[in-house]
Structure formats: C-alpha cells, structure tokens
Amino acid sequence: MKKVLILMGVLLIPILFIILNNTGRGTVAKDNIVFRDKLSDYNLFKGKIADLVPNDQGVSYELASALFTDYTDKKRVIFLPKGGKMIASDDGLPSFPDGTIIAKTFFYPPRDAVGDSRQRLLETRLLIHKDGQWNAATYQWNATQDEAFLLMDSASVHVSFLDNKGVERQTNYIIPSRKDCMSCHRQGNHLLPIGPKIRNLNRIIVHDRDSIQQLVRLTQMEALDLKSLKVSNSLASYEDIGQSTANRARAYLEINCAHCHNPKGTAYMTMLDLRYESPLNETGIWLKQAKIIGRMSTLGEMHMPQKGTTVLHEEGIILIKTYLKTLQ
Fold first, then answer.
1. What is the CA radius of gyration of the chain?
2. I need a surface site. Which of 28, 140, 152, 276 has the fewest CB within 10 A?
C-alpha cells in the first residue's frame, strides 16, 4: 500500500505542477494595432531603407549574449516616442513607454570570400507597444532588397552563407509567422520582448571608436532611466572564452531557451527552468542533461530551439556538452 501511495505521488506531482502553473493562462490578446503592409510605411530608417540607418528616435543596441539564428547577423534598434524613456527597476526587462517599436533585422553580411560583396537582408521583426500591450509581426525583404513586406504566414528562403569558421553552407531559412512569434515571446497571457533585459544590455560597446559602457551610453542619450539603480549583474557572453564555462552555458540557455522554458513560458510543462537567475538546483538541468543535448543535436521536429533554426549550432552544442560534463 505504501509503495502504491508513493507511486501515485510521483505521478501526481507533474500534473499538479502543470495545473498550478496553468492558472490564469488564458489566450493572448489579439493585436490592438493594424500592422502596415510595408516596412517603409513606418519611416523607421533614414535614406535608403536597406542601409538600416535609424531615424532620430531610433537607438541602436547590442546584447551580451544573442539568439542564435542560422549564423545570421542582426541589427537591433529601439524606437522610442519623443521624450520617452525606458525605465529600469531591476536587471530584468525595463518598462517601455507607449508607442515604442523594437525592430530586429536578420541578415547575412557580405561574402567577399566567395565573390559576393552585398549583404543579404532576410527579415525584420517588429514588436510594437500600444496601451500596455506588445504586438508582434514579421516583414520579409524582397529580392531587390529595397522593401520588406508584412507576412501573414511563415516563409522559406533558400540561402547560401558563411558560418563562423568561414565554411560555406546552404539552408532553407525559415521566417516565422506571428503565431511562431507568440510561441517564443509569450509569458503567461502577455507578449514580452526577450533580449533587451538590463543585464543583457550591461556590456561594453564601441562608440565613435571608443569603448563605453552601453548602459552609460543609453543614459547619456536620455533613452534609459536607471532610477539610481546600481546595476552589478551582467549576462555573460557565451562566445567569450575568457569567462567561466558555467556562466557562458547558462547565458546560452537563457537567451536561446529560457523564453519558453520558464514557469510562464510555453514550455513550462517540461519542468525545465532555464533562466539565468534560477539556482541550478531549481532548473532541472542536472536531471535532464541527456534530453537537453539530444534535442540540441537533432534536426527536424525534435530540434531545440524549435523556432528560428534550421542548422545545428555546433559551437553552442560543444559549449553545453562541456558544461554538462562539469555537473557529473
């Protein structure tokens, strides 16, 4: 009888976890804006749109650790309404003023090594903040690279590119639909930005050929108000071999996996909490080592992350494998 009760308890714990974490998980609200048909309709960029030069309200930013997306580069810009600022209360996401637009453009840089001197713009993803609600959409760049058009569904684009080792690769790059955007950006009943957390903005950048702390730069530009907050936490760069393997690996899992694998994310039922700030003994990493590396190393429906990648991130797999070995 005692064994039966123990077995029932073991079986019921995951069910109770799902029920408790599913409380209040209604559907995400529908868009409260109408997205425009063309990216140029927003007048976000000055001059030739493909040059991605932000208008006077645009603030370019860089992340300490960035999402891996088939070895693409990204141009990230936050467009704040006139007089508006991001307000930080801790090292997580700041609050954004109504009317904020976050634009992230994915592209492959020029490939002089193989005779192609032009960059290849693929997509621009927009997050637009209105009346306290974020709205997400994607725009696909055309073949002539002079416009990007609103996508109603996902799209596939055949690309040839050079990876980090200079090796030429080919793949059918997938541009996500709005539904795909929601699956990653959803936290409970809301959509939220993923990358621009204060700890991920807390890094050194180069401005006017000089190095400067990015949070200082954003404050000087009157784009960010730290409210006397002394930020000491920073997300590690998972590409920086000078930092510890543990910090690099946790940063990798944070930016590539934790937006779904957290108590409010769409993969909450997996009982994995991969947020950087979560103590190791509360993440489930040690118990699910084989599954984590297995899903990262497999292409197709079982691949993780599920969205935004069609090729394996070899450097990321090596990093996580190395980290998991240290846990044994």
1. 21
2. 152
